[in-house]
Structure formats: C-alpha cells, structure tokens
C-alpha cells in the first residue's frame, strides 16, 4: 500500500479568532530600554495591502543569545521572549516592539526570522529580515550569498528613526525571497 500525503489546506482568514492574543506583538514593553519598532506591510502581487495576514517573528537577544523561555504567550511585562505574533491592519501593516537582534555566531549577520500566514497560501512563508548597517557581516552571510544579487535587498530591512521597516511582497515585482522549509 502506498501512502499519499494529505494536501495542504488554505490558511486564514481566521487569525483574529484563535491565533492573536493580547501583547503578542510586544516582545518587550514600549518603554523598555533599547526597545525598537519592527514594522512593515504585507503586500500582494499587485502591491495592494493584505489586511488579514498574520506575521510571526523569532529572533535572538541583542547579545546573540537565543531565548528558550517557556510561556511566550504569557508575558511578564519585562522579560524578552524572542518571539511575537501580530496581525496586519487594513493597510497591511504589522508592528512589533522588540530589541535589535544580535548575531548568533561571531561575524554573522543578525536577523529576524519572519513567518507569514495569509489567505490563499497553502503553507506558511518563511523569510529573514537582516539588520542593515554591517556591510561586512551581510556580505559574508552564507544565506544572503546564496541569493541572486539583484534579490538580496528583499531580505534586508531598512532603518528608520524608530527601528526597522521590512515590507513583505508575496509575489510579483520585488517579491520577497522566501525560504524552502519542506523536508524531502
């Protein structure tokens, strides 16, 4: 007997019902020392906002350590958890309050791991938002080096006065590079 995998199911748009929780976008409180805003928009192939997507992030602490604390859903108001989840609004915008991630290994480029769930997707989409500013670390990063040079910019966030902006284009011109997470 040959087993056939169950086909994927379209995700969403039910995120607000079961997956969004109070404080989910606050990896640290707004007044926390070093708090920054990590924000952006999820856009479809025509450049229109996706108002019912869900964005999830995982990241290292500023010192590069990976937090393995239980209870990320039940935040205590001061402990950095390294994980957050935020829905997009009508303009496709998501926003997190977090800390600038550090490199997990010396000389590596620091990044935020980003997962996108949206209507019409059969599976989640995985990507990275690299922290801008250290051109040597970005140039030496193995994942970035494996991406066609013309598309690397879709993996690097932009700095602004509050933190970082990372727009996610699901398809079309300027499509964000997504990572293959399937295992063969």
UniProtKB/TrEMBL annotation:
Alphabetical list of InterPro entries matching this protein: Intradiol_dOase_C, Intradiol_dOase_core, Intradiol_RC_Dioxygenase, Protocat_dOase_a
Taxonomy, superkingdom: Bacteria
Sequence similarity: Belongs to the intradiol ring-cleavage dioxygenase family.
Annotated gene: pcaG
PANTHER family: DIOXYGENASE, PUTATIVE (AFU_ORTHOLOGUE AFUA_2G02910)-RELATED (PTHR33711), PROTOCATECHUATE 3,4-DIOXYGENASE ALPHA CHAIN (PTHR33711:SF9)
Gene3D superfamilies from the UniProt entry: Aromatic compound dioxygenase (2.60.130.10)
Organism per entry: Nocardioides alpinus
UniProt protein name: Protocatechuate 3,4-dioxygenase alpha subunit
All copies of domain Intradiol ring-cleavage dioxygenases, residue ranges: 35-171
Pfam family, one: Dioxygenase_C
A single MF term (Gene Ontology): protocatechuate 3,4-dioxygenase activity
Presence of the UniProt keyword Oxidoreductase in the record: yes
Keywords: Dioxygenase, Oxidoreductase
């Amino acid at each position: 007997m040959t087993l056939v995998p169950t086909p994927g199911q379209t995700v969403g748009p039910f995120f607000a019902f079961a997956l969004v929780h109070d404080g989910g976008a606050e990896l640290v409180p707004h007044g926390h020392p070093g708090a920054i805003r990590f924000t952006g928009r999820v856009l479809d192939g025509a450049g229109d906002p996706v108002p019912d997507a869900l964005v999830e992030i995982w990241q290292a602490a500023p010192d590069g350590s990976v937090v393995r604390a239980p209870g990320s859903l039940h935040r205590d108001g001061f402990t950095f958890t390294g994980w957050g989840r935020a829905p997009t609004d009508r303009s496709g915008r998501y926003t997190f309050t977090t800390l600038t991630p550090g490199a997990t290994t010396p000389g590596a480029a620091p990044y935020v791991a980003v997962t996108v769930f949206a209507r019409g997707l059969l599976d989640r989409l995985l990507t990275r938002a690299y922290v801008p500013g250290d051109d040597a670390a970005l140039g030496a990063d193995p994942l970035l080096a494996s991406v066609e040079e013309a598309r690397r910019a879709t993996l690097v966030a932009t700095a602004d006065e509050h933190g970082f902006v990372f727009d996610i284009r699901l398809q079309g011109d300027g499509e964000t590079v997504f990572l293959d997470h399937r295992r063969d």
